[in-house]
Amino acid sequence: MDTKDIYTEAKRPVISIRDLKKSFGTLTVLNGIDIDILKGENIAVLGKSGSGKSVLIKIISGLLKPDSGIVKVLGQEVDKITAAELQQLRLKIGFSFQNSALYDSMSVKENLAFPLVRNKRDLSIKEVNDAIEEVLNEVGLSQTINQMPSELSGGQKKRIGIARTLILKPEIMLYDEPTSGLDPMTSIEINNLINKVKQQYNTSSIIITHDLTCAKQTADRVTMLLNGKFLPPGKFEDVFNTQDQSLRTFYDYNFINSK
Predict the structure, then answer these.
(1) Model pTM above 0.70
(2) Does residue 254 sit within a domain?
(3) What is the per-residue pLDDT across 16-28, written as a single tens digit (0 to 9) for each?
(4) Residue 224 lies in a domain
(5) Is 22 within a domain?
(6) 147-153: Cβ within 8 A, 24+ apart
């Protein structure tokens, strides 16, 4: 393989979206979205509530169908593949929910075992236990293995939610407001974990967030969803080096000091 081939492989899109449109009744949420997420890249998607950020990742994961446009994930057009193919594709996509989505009636160990037992039935009990131990160690919460979700802090729940996603070793991570409701110190810990996941698992990620500190610390590129379209993506400093009032207002509200 020559240098050109290596470069092409390193820069190939794992998610490619062209002219994506989605409406609910008379409300147009996405109005011609175009973007590529490259292999090994974290991209933060900013925007006010109701701008369509969560709709976007639901379409990417096949939970919603687009009205029109093309959404390719790992080379497959999501709304054109069979249910069985979509199920297999979803095993390669990790979804970190805003509320962590842990099962309250299950211990941490049982929560982590659930996706493995459900999707990889050929694993032995030892293999399942080893996988649980590995991801708990990765998120720094080995001591919580026998605790119930009600015994965990908000930050711990977020970490366990990420661990449950990592246990299937996804190629793509979709983070929905990963620092929402957390104090500043815990938010920094989650940001560091997002970066660690990228480095150790070689994931490509979309990070939906209102939190500019999260975007600045975790994203290779950022973009804003405004009036149903993406503003041109770029590095954090470049995107916010602007007189565009919508961007300045969003920046000022977050009280970010980039100096």
Answers:
(1) yes
(2) yes
(3) 999 999 999 999 9
(4) yes
(5) yes
(6) 147/107, 147/108, 148/104, 148/106, 148/107, 148/108, 149/100, 149/102, 149/103, 149/104, 149/106, 149/108, 149/111, 150/104, 152/108, 153/186
